[in-house]
């Protein structure tokens, strides 16, 4: 867009050139804003991935405890059922 705008400005009348340059500057600023927003979102997502990895690591021992408790309850239930 900018390259084509510059080419246009070399052959267009002054009033048209000013309008095109204004739109080019606006497009350039919009592009910078979009890229900045994308960078911020990427950083946020990378932080979220790190948090999820930390959460999974901290939840693993708890999951092992739950699994052991579930197994103990099942075994107890089986023994109780055998008594009846």
Automatic annotation (TrEMBL):
It comes from the Eukaryota. This is Spectrin repeat containing, nuclear envelope 1b. It comes from Nothobranchius kuhntae. The gene is SYNE1B.
């Amino acid at each position: 867009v900018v390259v084509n705008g510059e080419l246009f400005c070399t052959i267009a009348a002054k009033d048209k050139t000013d309008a095109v340059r204004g739109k080019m500057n606006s497009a350039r600023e919009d592009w910078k804003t979009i890229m900045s927003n994308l960078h911020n979102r990427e950083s946020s997502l990378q932080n979220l991935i790190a948090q999820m990895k930390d959460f999974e690591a901290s939840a693993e021992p708890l999951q092992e405890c739950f699994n052991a408790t579930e197994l103990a309850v099942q075994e107890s239930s089986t023994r109780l059922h055998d008594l009846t």
